[in-house]
Amino acid sequence: TLIKIVKELFKQQFVIIVVNDGSHKSYNKIFDELKELSIVLTHEINKGKGEALKTGLSYIAHYFPANSIVVTLDADGQHSIKDTINVCNQVSHHAQAIILGVRSFDQDVPLRSRFGNSVTKFIFRISTRLNVSDTQTGLRAFKADMIPYLLKIEGSRYEYEMNMLLACAKDKVELVEVGIETIYEN
């Protein structure tokens, strides 16, 4: 799935950064193949999704202009290339915001995913008085000049993404929702 995503993004002229977060050496062939189409950064041991995101963001902050558009997406195939492009395009209309690609949870979504999002959505709403319909989305876009702010947010694993939303709510950083296709692979 990851190779397919990278190939499709490459065709759309994205500069792709992949973070190998301490994957077993049996996956080295995949990351070697990806090096032809992307920049592959590697953690020798698993540090968690939050640290992987921070590694990628740090790289972007160091090597790319502050007006670059950054998009994060999960490697499991849950985000279409069309939606990725759409979320990126929204940054030009909301330059100081985090754009969230939000899924609809009223379709044939696995119970675990529906339950998890319902709980985090509820906790977020009580904590911030803001309604974000998909607090667990990995499809997010923003200008690179936001990276120093995002790197200060605590969290090294999955909690980092929720902490990002909480920090944005506290600091009045706009969160813009853009509807995306709901994809769950069997």
N→C terminal distance? 13 Å
Query: Helical amount among residues, as a percent range?
Result: 40-55%
How large is the radius of gyration? Answer: 16 Å
Q: Give the structural class.
A: alpha/beta
Q: What percent of residues are in strands?
A: 15-25%
Instruction: Figure out the total of helices.
Output: 7
Question: What is the chain-wise order of helices and strands?
Answer: HEHEHEHEHEHHE
- pLDDT average, as an integer? 93
Low-confidence spans: pLDDT under 50, at least 5 residues?
none
Walk me through the structure:
It is a single chain. This protein has 186 residues and is of the alpha/beta class. It is built from seven helices and six strands. The strands form two sheets. The protein has a four-stranded mixed sheet, with helices on both faces. The protein has a two-stranded parallel sheet with strand order 1-2. α2 links the parallel β1 and β2 (39-43). α5 runs parallel beside α7 (159-170). It is globular. The chain starts with a helix and ends in a 7-residue tail after the last strand.
Question: What is this structure's SSE topology?
Answer:
Layout: H1 2-11, E1 17-21, H2 28-34, E2 39-43, H3 49-63, E3 69-72, H4 81-90, E4 97-102, H5 111-128, E5 140-143, H6 147-151, H7 159-170, E6 174-179
Parallel strand pairs: 1-2, 4-6
Antiparallel strand pairs: 3-5, 4-5
